[in-house]
Every structure is written in structure tokens, then in C-alpha cells.
Design a protein that fits this description.
The chain has helices at 2-14, 82-96, 164-184; strands at 33-35, 38-46, 52-59, 69-76, 104-109, 115-124, 132-144, 149-161. It is α+β, with helices and mostly antiparallel strands. It has a single domain, classed as Protein Transport Mog1p, Chain A, CATH 3.40.1000. Strands 1-2-3-4-8-7-6-5 form an eight-stranded antiparallel beta sheet, with helices on both faces. α1 (2-14) packs across α2 (82-96). It comes from Kaistella jeonii. Keywords: Signal. This is PsbP C-terminal domain-containing protein. Residues 1-19 form the signal peptide.
């Protein structure tokens, strides 16, 4: 089940080639979102399955092909085992580390046990385009209103392009601040929007 969840997220990412026009706000988070002095605008949304809703936000004038920062809300309108979801993400980065020497992952748990943070580094050296190191913070959170259980993965990615060693060093210096920003970010109330007929 958890593998299926992350497969859905991966497939949805593949489908995101460029920003959409007239993006529909699916989860009542229209943006812009202010994070660490950067304004993020809603650039893409999709409902890949019956219970999964995704929205991505980019800084103004940035494109997905060469972004420097990205915010992603992946909202599941059902109950999901948070520890299994976290373990799956950690294992995927650990597996990647066999070929990516910059891949490193850490896990933190909130004092009340209701949230987990998985933060990690990965690198890419594509045959076309610039090499980069990417730092990610994934915030896993469960919701329970008494009548409905749901689950959110809020993720932030920051890329540094160029020489991989220098990029990793640069992002490493920002890690504490970027992770703190995500931990302290006040998650807005999420409500699945009723789409107009035909959507």
C-alpha cells in the first residue's frame, strides 16, 4: 500500500512537465505562500487518484525544468500509517545512496508524535542540462477531525546548480535554517474543493 502511495506520487511528478494555465486549487490552498521571504505561487495541481490531491508552488518567474525552490502539498483524503510512510521514504533515499554519494537522509519526530520530518540530500548529473544537488524537507502529518482521517505530505525542495561538491557544501550550510522554516510553517486548513461538473 505504501509503495503504491509513493508510486502514485512519482507518476504524478512525471506528468508535471510545465506550469499549467488556470490552475485549479483542489485543497483550498490557493497561494501565494510566503516562506523564508520567498513568495510561492500555485503552478500545478492534479488529482492522481480518488483520494490523492497534489498542488505544487514555485517562486514567481521560475519553471519546473530549472527551479531553485519548490513546495508540494500531497493530501490524502484517507487514513495512512505515518510510520510506514516515513519508513518508505527513508528506504528510497538509502537505496539511492548506493549510486549517489551525496544522498543522505535524517528523520526527526515532533514531541507529540503527530508529525515526522524526513530531510535529505540527493544529486543529479544529467547528460543534458546542469548538474545539481537538491535538499528536501518532507513533513508528514496526520489529521483526525473525529469523523474523517486524512494525511498530508508537505515537501520543500531547494536546488543548487553547478559543481556537485560546491553545491552540496552550500546547501549543507542552509540545512538548519531551511528545516526550521518548514517545521515552523503554519499549515493552512485543508479542504478538498468541490470541482465543477466536467472537471
Amino acid at each position: 500500500m505504501i509503495k503504491k502511495i509513493f508510486l502514485l506520487l512519482f507518476i504524478a511528478s512525471l506528468g508535471f512537465i510545465k506550469a499549467q494555465e488556470n490552475v485549479v486549487d483542489l485543497i483550498s490552498v490557493p497561494g501565494p505562500i510566503d516562506l523564508d521571504g520567498t513568495e510561492f505561487l500555485l503552478s500545478w495541481s492534479k488529482q492522481p487518484s480518488k483520494t490523492l490531491y497534489r498542488q505544487q508552488f514555485l517562486p514567481r518567474d521560475e519553471q519546473i525544468e530549472n527551479f531553485t525552490q519548490l513546495l508540494d502539498f500531497s493530501f490524502f483524503n484517507k487514513e495512512i500509517d505515518i510510520e510506514l510512510a516515513v519508513r518508505q521514504k527513508v528506504e528510497s533515499i538509502q537505496s539511492r545512496a548506493e549510486k549517489d554519494k551525496f544522498a543522505k537522509v535524517n528523520v526527526s519526530e515532533s514531541p507529540d508524535g503527530k508529525e515526522y520530518i524526513v530531510d535529505y540530500f540527493i544529486s543529479e548529473a544529467p547528460s543534458k542540462g546542469d548538474s545539481y544537488v537538491e535538499y528536501n524537507v518532507y513533513r508528514f502529518k496526520q489529521f483526525d477531525t473525529g469523523t474523517q482521517k486524512s494525511f498530508l505530505i508537505l515537501s520543500y525542495a531547494k536546488r543548487s546548480y553547478g559543481d556537485l561538491k560546491s553545491a552540496a557544501k552550500s546547501l549543507g550550510k542552509e540545512r538548519d535554517r531551511l528545516m526550521t522554516n518548514m517545521i515552523e510553517y503554519k499549515i493552512p486548513e485543508i479542504k478538498v474543493a468541490a470541482l465543477p461538473a466536467g472537471k
